[in-house]
Amino acid sequence: MPEGLRKPTVSDMRWLTPRTWRLWTDIGLRGHTRDGAVEPGWLGRLEDRNIAFVRLLVSSGLRRQEGGSLLTFEVPGIRLGGSRYCRGRVSGAVTRSKASRTFYASAEAVRDVDIALAAAVAAVRARAAADRRALHTRTAQLRHIGAFMSMSPKAFEHALADLCRRDGCTKVTVVGGAGDLAADVLATTPTGRRILIQAKRYSPRTLVGSQDVQKVNGTYRDIHGCDLAAVVTTSSFTKSAAAFCTQVGIRMTDHRALALWAEGTGRPPGTDPSGPVSEGRLRLGVGRGRKAVAGLQQDGRGRAGRPGQGRVPGRDRPLGREGSGSDGAEGHTAGSSRVP
Question: How confident is the model over 223-232, as pLDDT tens digits?
């Protein structure tokens, strides 16, 4: 306590008159001036909630910890025989005596709590609707591979995160950056599986090499705790990278499969390749190659679902060119190597 001030006692308590109480709530909680006008520059947005909470405490005599521990369904809502008060119960875990007890709150205070709760729910729903509209606007612009090619690597990561959210993924976070340990986007698929996405915003002549996918394979389980891993690129994969992904089960999404995913006609990276495809996707996936990419590109499996059989993802068009004697490391370009 500051020097020169004594510790307050019960005798120092002064009761507020109704007028002073209203003045205190307007100035202290609503941000008004003494003449009743809104304070210039006031940025408060939870005034109704705060006032409802204070009125509940004052009306019921609950301590702040006791009132703050009440869940919405614990707020009393039934009047006692048509009186002005409602009866409720507070748990002994939060009371000073460690015993549950009954409290009484005025019907007006309970009504204020209900109004504040309804307003908060409406605000959350409005924000969620606005977020869905903004997400739809952003993903609607990703209808062509050219939209991805004009992005920076960081913007490409956020675009992939938006596509994951559009397709029902939750807990989507962009974690790419220095020291990201081969993770750019982390998400939970609609089936509850955790997926890691490595984004490679490469030019068409720069291929994803086996060293890139080996890093993903070495970190997505043990470091990031994910069940699935996918590498999404605006380019393509070297032959050795595609073979490695097929062997270990890493999903591959090249520029063609990325375009189909963005259009909504291809499978997201976290989708089970053996799962059903909607009628609209089958109808829109024109051509045998497009269907193969949409249905089989995720893990490089053949038509029967066994590794090493059927079409390797993207084999209906060149996988790219791979340098002689190399492992397809990052930076290899199609113009500087031989045709396999």
Answer: 999 999 999 9
